[in-house]
Amino acid sequence: MKVSPMTQSLILHFGEMGSKWxxxxxxxxxxxxxxxxxxxxNADQISDALQISRSNVSMGLKELKxxxxxxLQHIPGDRKEYFxxxxxxxxxxxxxxxxxxxRELDPTLSMLxxxxxxxxxxxxxxxxxxxxxxxxxxxxxxxxWSNELQHMSSEKLxxxxxxxxxxxxxxxxxxxxxxxx
Length: 181
Description:
Belongs to the GbsR family. Pfam families: MarR_2 (PF12802). The protein is mainly α. It contains eight helices and three strands; from the N terminus they run H-H-E-H-H-E-E-H-H-H-H. Strand 2 (71-74) and strand 3 form a beta hairpin. Helix 5 packs antiparallel against helix 6 (123-150). The protein starts with a helix and ends with a helix.
């Protein structure tokens, strides 16, 4: 499979960014190829396009499936498995938020809750619990907010993000009209 220079550049970039997004370089490249290719791809096509071993592709596809980032498809008359990404980039973003939350926030929230249930044995532990409570409350708000975002349509998410600076200005006006005590 031949990849255009534009696509190749994006694939390389996604590979470099993969580690920053919680994926390795190969997974980032594989996902970029799948996202940027209109037709579903099979493992041989991915291996050929990225010049990586078939076994690496198989392991990568399993990992991408575990992240719920790709969909398995079958093409009538072809025994191979084909893979595609959601066409809606907002769906991809929502999936990444959910999967990262499951892997990162949820275990940390559990640990924070366990810490809050313990009886402090001294002043230092009381201070630790106070800080943990603040972290817990913040992470809980992020979790509730991300749950809300998960159920919004792509159109509403887009509109919300376009409000951007406008929300900040509204909050500034609110603070002037209703100063907090």
